[in-house]
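A quick aside before the break. I want you to see a complete sequence-to-structure record at least once, exactly as it would be stored in a machine-readable document. Don't worry about memorizing anything.
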Amino acid sequence: MQDNLEEILLSRKIHPTAMRLLVLDELSKSESALSLNDLEGHFERADRVTLYRTLKTFEKHKLVHRIEDGTGALKYALCEASCDCAPQDLHAHFHCNKCQSTFCLKDYHLSQMKTPNNFQVEEISLVIKGLCEQCSHVN
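That is the input. The structure line, written in tokens, reads:
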């Protein structure tokens, strides 16, 4: 698994460090997007600034995408291998109002919107809110 994680980092031109490998491992194991606070809780001795810089490096090299789900905390999820984080690669997200988890809906791609002349789309965000599968089955 370690070799595979290193290959993923190298394929995005990111130098593998111990912390980067640990963060990538956590993101790859998670079914939902993770915030900086979530990641901090997974590591006993992690420096918040190092975690933040790791996420920013991953975002810069298009390994993760940032999700603003309305909670006030940015969340991060791994990009698909072919993702270039261009508007045509963007997909919807689902935020559970009960458990506060945010999920990528990778099968629901956002179509390019027609904008007025001289408007250039750089980012599109769609967050659907409700109850996730687990929370909707809890009485």
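Two observations worth writing down. The chain has one domain: 2-136. The domain at 2-136 is CATH 1.10.10.10 (Arc Repressor Mutant, subunit A). We'll return to this after the break.
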